[in-house]
Amino acid sequence: MTRGFLHGRTETCRSVSSDSVAWCTSMDDPSADTGRRIKLLRTALATHSRLTREAVNGHGVDRHLLGLRMLVAPTEPMPAIFTDPAYTYSSHWFVSTSQMSSEHLCSYGWSAVTPRGYGIAYNIRENSLIIHVACVRNEHGLNSDRFAQCLEAAVHDITSLIDVKKVSEY
Predict the structure, then answer these.
(1) What is the pTM of this model?
(2) How far apart are CA 35 and CA 33, in angstroms?
């Protein structure tokens, strides 16, 4: 929720950027050294922070495009941008997340917004991280238990990478 606007509003923070892909790729590359991975992580975090600030300040694209699409009258032809396969694909939320940080909140859920996706709720606490993974088990082969295991492994990889002693060396 972006409280800077009358009655608030939501906006989408897209987590995938070329910088986040470069960092993720390095984490899966055995030849990438720790220094390179840390540098790529810092770049990805800076990009994500910038994009999130832009979205919070009303400079994201998703809600603007949604508003324009909703203005098309039922009798009018849909503009080409909204029927383009790239737009359709980018509007399909394979992973939908929500975050509520509180030391007092035990857990909460966030459902998947599509039968082919996952819903992830997370609570960042001072000394822990609570993550709730949900999906619909169906013909698409989704498995929230497996997703959670992979997520846990990734958190351990990141924790290892950003060990204070290692980071101070770079």
Answers:
(1) 0.80
(2) 6
pLDDT in tens, 35-57: 999 999 999 999 999 999 998 88
CA distance 135 to 117: 6
- Sign of the alpha-carbon torsion through 113, 116, 117, 118: positive
Integer Cα distance of 52 and 17 in angstroms: 12
Burial class (CB in 10 A: 0-12, 13-18, 19+), 139: exposed
Q: Give the model's confidence band at 27: pLDDT under 50 very low, under 70 low, under 90 confident, else very high.
A: very high
Q: Which two tokens stand for residue 96?
A: 């939908």
What's the alpha-carbon Rg for the chain, to the nearest Å? 19
Contact 38, 166 (CB under 8 A): yes
